[in-house]
Amino acid sequence: MQMLTVVAPVFAARCSVLVAPDGDCAVVDPGAGTAEQVREIVARHALRPRGVLLTHGHADHTWDAAALSAAFDVPVLLHAGDVHRLADPFGTLGVLDPRHDPRGPLAQALRAVGVEPAAWQQPQQVQPFGRAGVGRTGDVDLDLGGVRVVARHAPGHTEGSTLYLVDAGEVEPVVLSGDVLFAGGIGRTDLPGGDDDAMLATLRDVVAALPRGSRVLPGHGPATDVATELATNPYLPRRG
């Protein structure tokens, strides 16, 4: 499977377009300002969108989900634990809520690309997977036409944070880690829905157990790989 990347102008959030050999595709984490570029990619390569996948429900990863879902008439898929965020993504951001802090970093980032916080649109076609509640819900196989992805629940940054494992023709699956794992760091846990204990369990039981050869594409920042993070990331347990 081919993977194309679009970087959102808001917080440089990574949006990935997963392209199957038959031309089916899925869009992952379309942040603010990515919809037009995604539509251009779809048109240029004559692709058939089958769904929009979200690693979690924060606004910088979901802003253009409704627009693309409507434009392509496809569902938005995310873990059941984060579905509630799509109704009010700013209300679940606590101190970053741009309605409470109109001069804060998220409000400024949105306005820099000509977007007002009040312009948020809730996706109308939402397909949750997994289950809401305490504890991880394991793997869910998502089949979107020719696009097949393993969704692995990884709570801690939010209740429904998810890793997507993608067969991109490499020895090990590529991991789209959202805001769970970054190069040299991890996602914050001090926003509503964040949980230190859940994040520690995710890092120990989910992230550290990923195949060492897997390339990691975080929700922000440079790519990395599991082996490098296990050796150098101060937040991950060391594995022999």
UniProtKB/TrEMBL annotation:
The keyword Hydrolase applies. This is MBL fold metallo-hydrolase. Residues 12-220 form the Metallo-beta-lactamase domain. SUPFAM superfamilies: Metallo-hydrolase/oxidoreductase. The lineage of its organism: Bacteria, Bacillati, Actinomycetota, Actinomycetes, Micrococcales. InterPro entries: MBL_Glyoxalase_II, Metallo-B-lactamas, RibonucZ/Hydroxyglut_hydro. Keywords: Hydrolase, Metal-binding, Zinc. Its cofactor is Zn(2+).
